[in-house]
């Protein structure tokens, strides 16, 4: 398919996530935000300038698709967030069940049954300096955003380039969605500047790790493959859903290490992420990829799961 994506030949990853023509910085009139236990108009939702999430990226976040008013796999997203909070020694003031209830109310108040939900947890306000205060009060924010369209019959396809930025192969923080995402931001900027839609991130051992916004899959000898976690790879929720679908469909999977040069010779490369689900790759580093028919049943099954009430 020609153009920047199969959805619209003029539509790129940058357009999907950052539609500047719609003025991304404008506040949504009448929109509500969840802030520390209360629902407030977005224009009135503020956090202190000394919040450690703002000052140091000291926090976590989760992003999930909302379909039919239901955040998809929210329990799994919150489980990962709570594991990260334990690791960072941030005590979330709300249990996961209560956050799920608040999310449902927020979606209803905004009348957005089809949306993207973001949950943010920071260590809260504190003094300047890296050492956290023991009596800090964490900040919890939830927001809903317009969701990019998804079409199982005509999915968005991305052009992928290998980024010059590297991620640590053995960093334990890679298991969580921390707010410190500068490497991913710079990698995505680099990709867009080179006319691509997404960036492939390689770890410091020279192995494929993930992309700027998701996990990577490819087909090798009729196996649907992905990188094992623990090598700079985030254990993505959509990644786990795809592995679950493969088990249900009886499709063989393999968690294996691969180098960028070998990836370019693979079949059926695709990215998994919560906002767009499954995104086929058209060209890794400018080379057309051989499509795989194994992706079609996985795509259909994923969209069927999203549509369930």
Written overview of the protein:
By secondary structure, the chain is an alpha+beta fold. The protein has 2 domains: 31-145, D-amino Acid Aminotransferase, Chain A, domain 1, CATH 3.30.470.10; 158-307, D-amino Acid Aminotransferase, Chain A, domain 2 (Alpha-Beta Barrel). The chain has 8 helices and 14 strands. The chain has helices spanning 13-17, 52-56, 74-88, 96-110, 182-193, 237-249, 260-263, 295-307; strands at residues 32-35, 38-41, 59-67, 70-71, 115-122, 139-145, 158-167, 198-203, 208-211, 215-220, 223-226, 253-255, 267-273, 277-284. The protein has an 8-stranded mixed beta sheet with strand order 9-8-7-14-13-10-11-12. A hairpin with a 3-residue loop joins β13 (267-273) and β14 (277-284). The radius of gyration is 19 Å and the shape is globular. The two termini are 33 Å apart. The relative contact order is 0.14. Residues 1-14 and 16-26 have low confidence and may be disordered.
The CATH architecture designation of the largest domain is: Alpha-Beta Barrel
End-to-end separation in angstroms reads 33 Å
Fraction of helical residues: 25-40%
Beta-strand portion reads: 25-35%
Report Rg: 19 Å
Q: Which strand order do you get reading across the main beta sheet?
A: 9-8-7-14-13-10-11-12
Question: Low-confidence spans: pLDDT under 50, at least 5 residues?
Answer: 1-14, 16-26
**Average of pLDDT:** 90
**Helix count, per DSSP?**
8
Instruction: Give me the CATH fold name of the largest domain.
Output: D-amino Acid Aminotransferase, Chain A, domain 2
CATH H-level homologous superfamily name of the largest domain = D-amino Acid Aminotransferase, subunit A, domain 2
Please report the first level of CATH classification, the CATH class of the largest domain. Alpha Beta
